Amino acid sequence: xxxxxxxPLLDSLPSGHHQVANAVIKYVYTRSTTIECKKIDLxxxxxxxxxxxxxxxxxxxxxxxxxxxxxxxKTLAYKSKKHRSYKHYDLLFQNKMKRIIxxxxxxxxxxxxxxxxxxxxxxxxxxxCDVPVLNxxxxxxxxxxxxxxxxxxxxxxxxxxxxxxxxxxxxxxxNIFVTGIPVDESFSNSLYVKKNENQITxxxxxxxxxxxxxxxxxxxxxxxxxxxxxxxxxxxKQLYEEISNLNDRNIYPLPYISSRKEMNDLYNLADAxxxxxxxxxxxxxxxxxxPIFVISALPGQEEINLKNLKEQGxxxxxxxxxxxxxxxxxxxxxxxxxxxxxxxxxRYLNTRELxxxxxxxxxxxxxxxxxxxxxxTEVVINxxxxxxxx
Length: 390
Prior knowledge:
Blueprint: E1 2-7, H1 16-31, E2 35-39, H2 42-46, H3 48-64, H4 66-76, H5 87-104, E3 108-111, H6 114-125, E4 133-136, E5 153-156, H7 159-169, E6 176-178, E7 200-205, H8 214-221, E8 227-232, H9 237-244, E9 251-254, H10 260-269, E10 272-275, H11 279-288, E11 292-294, H12 301-311, E12 316-317, H13 324-332, H14 335-349, H15 357-384
Parallel strand pairs: 1-2, 1-3, 3-4, 4-5, 5-6, 7-8, 7-10, 8-9, 10-11, 11-12
């Protein structure tokens, strides 16, 4: 049986890194019974208590001190240096990564987070890892932490990212594939069609933690009876209760939804989504061809995502101080704006080189077959060089 190791990070946080890892594992298990996938959180396997603490600190930091987080992220992880070195990470985690690879003996490694990719890149430089590695980037840009030069294969979100890998890091075009950010297969492809002429259904998401000034936006939009809101409150119980107490039949609070099928059903109801610019949520909405309005951006990654998405015409932005209902209707009832959005969406989707989960699986399977042939060749060569027994 062939084995794939998949490395996201921060198991305590239902992040996009884990969602993409789960989606790709599902692609494999749906189509093969001869491939084993094992998801490993390097930080948790090193020390579960530290992993939980890091998650809590991260969430607290971005909520309470967003400007300082953004400054540190951009200084240390984004456009700082072409070849970034984090020697303290190497000292703490490199031996742990080597032990995992030695014990698991995988045929392929997939990274959906920059940190394990960085470690593997360094191990390859030193000759301590010869297992093929595939980076699957979960944003609409690449930060400096990702390993790049020694990583064999790359799944990127758009052509701009592919060009950057080719020109900045001298990676062959043959090893880079524009796939978008892989999402769960439960999200079926859709054509954007207005659901109800007399009512516009909006899916409003604050992420798994229910972040953002959602209550203020809803209260300001309540006067417009043509709008119906389904609000994803995530794990924010206070937000759920506050919306429930509004007793508004056009505003429906929803708790955290883990089922991707349930989320697909909600997208099928929606005429638009209001969300933060997280890579996975945006990619789900793109696949469903639901117009996207960005409510706010978390500091760091999401701010950079938003900039890139706006440049491609893939999102509309919600401006503070202007009535939410007016902003939504000004776009969704404007045929010219909707046609422009559809053209931008087609341009983006037409750049895909691996178009769906089937093609992604076939590519991964081909890598496993190549890895198996390589190992057989090495065994033959090693046996040829063994001393003869007398």
